[in-house]
Structure formats: structure tokens, C-alpha cells
């Protein structure tokens, strides 16, 4: 049910962190994977790791800036040239250039958050959906965040963009469902990555997070990767338009 042999996947933001772990787990399940982030050196290093574990030709490195539509078009073209098809798209890359209240965010920063975290996902999906629809088979996964479910005084713009990703998936699930193309989101809590380092990188911060999480630990990238494989595989073939929360239970707790 989790076998992805013969499938080809694009994973954005996959040179490190959650994206890299998703790419690794997709490869372990039999898929060919394209590693993509802004810097080609980092992409090459991640691809080489996967190829060393799963065989040469399993992973391809293609640098792309998600804010550049031509870069994304090249990413899709390069994937098709190398693997002949795109069966799985994981939109993982995101940015958060502003830390503070919305009252202090510049128009430029707000647009960057929305462009990188929402519009770029829309672009990529529109580029790959036609071939998936033609084959009557495809899986699209957007990595969102539990931030899209709550308010915040310091990462409000990021949370707004992640809430928009939930609706992007729901709407596209309606549009693409008749063609057997599934679109879902994953909403991680705090995961031990460089992107979220400020939230866990001190004994006091980690202790606080552990106390707020029923499972008593911070999430690891592989905790998210396993869900992505599930959603991309035959095991998730009747799931679309949904959000799976991967947070150790933190969103179910509240003030005592």
C-alpha cells in the first residue's frame, strides 16, 4: 500500500529539513525524486545522499527559487526530461521574512509571504495537474502548518498564508477530484528543523514545548515525511481536500 515504484516526485525546499526527509522517504518507498531549493550545491549534496542509499539515478538536483515562475517551469521541465512524468508533487518550500505584529509588516514583506507560500504552490500545481488529470492519477501534498489554525502576535502573515494553503487544497481537490488527482495538506507543529530553530533552540523553550505536547517531545522531520508518503501512496487513495495535523497533540491542549 505504500509502494511508490515507478513514480516520480518533485519536492520543493528539499535540500534540508522536512523537505529532505520527505524526499528520502519517498525514495525509500521506490519513487524517483527531484531535490529542489535555491542553491544548487545544497541540492546536489542532498541528491547524492539519496543516490548513495537507493542507487544512482534515484534523485535529481534542480535549483529553483519558488518566487520565480520561470524557475518553476524549468523545474517541471527538468523533471519530465529526466523521469518522463510527474506523479507526485510536494509543495514544501516556504518563507517567513517578518517576525512581529501585522501592524509593522511592510507591503513588500507581506506580498513575499503570500507569493512564496501560496502563489508559488498554485503555479506549480497548475503546471503538473494537466498530465496528472490526463493519466487519471496524481497526488499533490502541500506542507502547511498548525499556524494556519491559530492567531499569532508575531507570525501573523505566515499563519495567514498557511491558512490559505488549506483552502487552496480544498478548492483544488474539488476541481481535480473528477480526474482522480488528490490534493491534501499536512499541518506540522514545531519540528526540529533549522527553519523553526528559534522556537526550540534553548533548554527552556524545548522544556516548554514538551510540557505543552501530549506526546512529550518535539517533532522530527521523519514524523512529517511518513505522512507525506502515506498521502502520496495507494494507502491514501480515498483521501482528498483534507489536512492531517502532525503536532504530537499540541493543538488539542489548552489552558488548565
Q: Helical residue percent?
A: 40-55%
Secondary-structure element string? EHEHEHEHEHEHHHE
Order of strands, widest sheet: 3-2-1-4-5-6-7
Structural class: alpha/beta
Low-confidence stretches: none
User: How many strand segments?
Assistant: 7
Structure notes:
- The chain has 256 residues and is an alpha/beta fold.
- It has helices spanning 17-28, 40-54, 69-83, 107-135, 156-176, 197-200, 203-212, 221-232; strands at 8-12, 32-36, 59-61, 88-91, 138-143, 181-188, 243-246.
- The protein has a 7-stranded parallel sheet with strand order 3-2-1-4-5-6-7, with helices on both faces.
- Strand 5 (138-143), helix 5 and strand 6 form a beta-alpha-beta unit.
- Helix 4 (107-135) packs parallel to helix 5 (156-176).
- The model has no long low-confidence stretch (mean pLDDT 94).
What keyword list fits this structure?
46% helix; 7 strands; 8 helices; alpha/beta; globular
In short:
This protein has 256 residues and is α/β, with parallel strands linked by helices. The protein has helices at 17-28, 40-54, 69-83, 107-135, 156-176, 197-200, 203-212, 221-232; strands at residues 8-12, 32-36, 59-61, 88-91, 138-143, 181-188, 243-246. It starts with 7 loop residues before the first strand and ends in a 10-residue tail after the last strand.
Helix-strand layout with pairing:
Layout: E1 8-12, H1 17-28, E2 32-36, H2 40-54, E3 59-61, H3 69-83, E4 88-91, H4 107-135, E5 138-143, H5 156-176, E6 181-188, H6 197-200, H7 203-212, H8 221-232, E7 243-246
Parallel strand pairs: 1-2, 1-4, 2-3, 4-5, 5-6, 6-7
Helix pairs in contact: 1-8, 3-4, 4-5
